Every structure is written in C-alpha cells, then in structure tokens.
Amino acid sequence: MSRSMKRLSLEAAAVILSILIFWIPLYFVLVNALKDAPGASELTISWPSTVHLWSNLKEVVIANDYMLLRAFYNSTLLTILSIVLMVMVCAMAGFIMHRRSDRLTPVIGFFVLAGLIIPPAIVPTIWVLDNLQLFKTMTGIVLVEVALGFPFGVILFRNFMGGIPREIDEAAIIDGCGGFRLFFRIILPLLKPVTATMIVTSSVSIFNDFVNPLYFFPGSENVTVQLTLYNFMSQYTTQYNLLFMNILVITVPLLILFLFFNNKIVSGMTAGSVKG
After folding, report:
1. What is the pLDDT, as a whole number, of residue 266?
2. Per DSSP, what are the bridge partners of residue 238?
3. Residue 183, pLDDT score
4. Strand partners, 85
5. Among 106, 133, 197, 203, which has the highest number of CB atoms less than 10 A from its own CB?
6. Quick one: pLDDT at residue 276?
7. A GO BP term, please (predicted)?
8. How far apart are CA 63 and CA 46, in angstroms?
9. Residue 47: how many CB atoms within 10 A of its CB?
C-alpha cells in the first residue's frame, strides 16, 4: 500500500472514530431533547414525530425558580475569575521557571509535574477552606480551580517561553525595565497564542466542572450548570426529555466556543511543543 493510501486510510479511520465518539452521542442528546416525556423515555435515536423544542426549553429554564439562569451566572463568573487568575499566575511561573537555572529548578519542575499526577484530596481541602472561611464561597472555588489547573498551565507557558529569546530580557533590563514591567509590557504580549490555548481549554474544563463545585461550592444559591442536571433526576423517576434539553443548553455555548477557537488551540499547543 502506498504512503498516500495509508494516510487516506488513517484520516478516514479518524473521521469515523470521531463520529462514533462525539457526533453520535451529540445526535442522541439532540433528538431526545426534542421529544416529549414518553418518547424520550424510550432512549432511541429516532427523530421525533412532533418537535417539542420550545416547550422543553421553557420548562428547563423556569425549573426550580429559574435555577438554570442562576447557574449560568455562577459558572460564567467562576470561569472568568479562574481564567484571569490562572493565566497571570501560570504565565509568571512559567517565565521564571524557564529563565531560572539553578539547583532548585529541577525540584520545582518535579513538584509541578507531580501536580498533574497526584489526585486532589477532597476532605483535607474542605478542611483547609473551612478554616480559612473560604468554604462555600466563590473565592474558595476559584482558588481550587486555579490550583488544579496550575501544573498544566505552567508547563504550557514554560514550553512556549523557549521560543522567546533571552536577548529581549537583557535589552529590556539595560533600558531600565524592572521585573514586573519586563513581564507585563514585553513578555506577556508575546504569549498571545499560548494564552488563547490556555483560555479556551481551561474555560471548557472549568465551565463543565461537576465534581469541584459539588464538594467545595455546595448550596442552591451556588449551583453551577452541571449541577442543574439534578433538577430532572431523582431516585425513582427521570424526565429524560428535560434532562437532555438541559444537557444541550449547557453544551452548545462551549461547543461553539471550541469550534470558533479550534485553530488557535492547535497553533498554541503546536508552538509550545516545538519551541520547548
């Protein structure tokens, strides 16, 4: 088999695999979100004879005193605050780790890498947040999200920093730039590709986070979008049409964001890997 045929076969296999893994489940959610309660309870992929788009959407929005709208506000605020803090902290840490070369650098790199491997401890984290009076607060859950995303962000920024010549730092210092001015006025604008990658990937992860808000940000007033799925699930019954409509509503915005910034994600990840 020629090289072109092998490449074509791999591309076809990748397309088929993506259809099986991603598009078929999305289609399953879509068709059941458009059905009435009896039709959705059958859990089939057949197109509904009668579309109930607006009635299902209205019921999802008004459920539990408009909980979905409150959840969108909480998730959006959580995502924005976490991303802003994460980008700043990870970019500065990545800059220092790449430019610094001493005996502590490998040790620090080891602990950053360990953060990707070691799972978070739920109970001790709740104890720490409670003693700091940050449990069930937006500040507390933001710090948790930043801490969990910190290792990946630092590695991403550190690798990308390899493509920025050290001569830029030296020239800026000779011109009288201090450390913070050097970073924010010169280095940070050069990090736009990897910053875009960090923003999009982390936004999807934080906005779709289910476990951390469940443990560290409980309460009906603190509900996030993923936790609204409980509105239509109980021990004895599940309203599948409304459940799937809820899933569709909270998935579409991030799907559009991901598709729109797909090229930026790929370019940022590629640039970081090559320049590292």
Report:
1. 57
2. 233
3. 85
4. none
5. 197
6. 41
7. transmembrane transport
8. 27
9. 11
